[in-house]
Amino acid sequence: MTPFNVLQSWGKVLSGNIPMLSIEITRECPLHCPGCYAYGDSHLGEGGPNLRSVADYRGDDLVSGILRLVEQHRPLQVSLVGGEPLMRHRELSRVLPELSNRGIYTLIVTSGVIPIPQGWTNLPRVTVAISVDGNPEDHDVRRKPATYDRILRNISASRVNVHWTVVRNNVEQPGYLDRYLQFWNARAEVNRIWVSVYTPQAGEQSAERLTAENRRALYDYFRSTGNRYPKLTMHKGLLDAFIAPPQNPAGCLFSKLSVNYTADLRTRVEPCVFGGSPDCAECGCSMSMGMHWLGQIKIAGGIRAHHLIEHSLAIGRTVNQIRGAGSGLRWDVPPQSGSNDLVQIER
User: Concatenated DSSP letters for 139-166?
Assistant: First the structure.
């Protein structure tokens, strides 16, 4: 599933539905990674609950809850995240074949701390992405117990994508980037290597945050890689978007065309998957950057793809007004409270 697939699916937007749906299917995670946006105090809004404090679900309640959101929004792609989504691998083993049969692209983003069930990556339109943040000397400290050794054991019978969120020290250490790409590009289990850049919250000062010089150095590095790493998903258009990302959620196609739920399957994560108040001027999300780049492509004359999307959004708004139904897109008021037809699990 790529941003191209999303942009080609105008019918989803024209009919008032969404191309992309993301669900934090559990609040549980055995990791305590520094800089993790999902467990930030402002992830679900200032003064609100955080991911660890919301209710979540198991068994039939989780399966039916995920499918309810899919039926409500009719997305082209579903991302199942967490927490650690493989904490609910039994439920996912029921959900994934159903989504595949419905023709929906599904992405599971995991730390690799739990073995990937056999057969998942053989399902059509199902992709498993393993988050590997740096080389072993950094990753194994940052993401313990999801160490390199454990990840390699747990993906040995699968085909996966590797997702790397680059932080400051990854750029500043000579040879670091090459060492990472050489290792994962050579692994038979790896289909693709996706790269994001750490996205800070507004006003954040942390060791993970890249400086403007770091971003330029990273841009120059990827411009120089050529064809040395065939599994690396990177090109000039995407790099240009990293240097000049959308300045706010209103200018971000990814934010506009996606809807995100936390583990209670009711509360929305806004304005995008990061929640809180992300510093959009330093956004490094690979999907956001991909959509931003594609939005600048000229279709005919002076018309760019984002112009077509904006007109489609206006039509979708009208469709929803006529049928009296909310799609969950950015023109609707997020349903933050009200009745919940799922049984909550209290701990």
Answer: HHHHSTTS-HHHHHHHTTTS-EEEEEEE
- Side chain identity at 288, as an amino acid letter? S
Mean pLDDT in consecutive groups of 10 residues from the start of the chain, 347 residues: 49 60 96 88 83 94 98 92 97 98 96 95 96 97 97 95 96 97 98 94 92 94 92 81 82 84 95 91 80 54 54 51 51 40 35
Q: Where are the domains of the chain?
A: 19-296
Sheet with 258-261, side-by-side order of all strands: 190-197, 160-166, 126-131, 105-110, 77-81, 20-24, 258-261
Query: Is the Cα torsion angle 253, 258, 261, 262 positive or negative in sign?
Result: negative
How high is the pLDDT of residue 34? 85
Q: Are 170 and 134 spatial neighbours (Cβ–Cβ below 8 Å)?
A: yes
The structure tokens 């969950």 sit at 328
d(CA 110, CA 2): 19
Dig out the tokens for 149 from the structure: 């050794």
The CATH number of 19-296 is which of 1.10.10, 3.90.530, 3.20.20, 3.10.110? 3.20.20
